Amino acid sequence: MASIEDELNQLEKDIRQIQIEYDTYFTGGRKRPPAESEWRVQTMIKRLSDAGGKIKFAQRFRFNGLASRYAKYSEVWRQRAKRVEMGGSAFAYSKVARELEQQRLAEAERKHSARIGGPARVAFSDPLKEGEKVQELYRTMMEAKEKAGEKPDVNFEQFHQFVRNKTEQLKKQMGCKAVEYEISVEGGHVKLKAKGV
Question: What is the count of structural domains for the chain?
Answer without folding.
Answer: 2
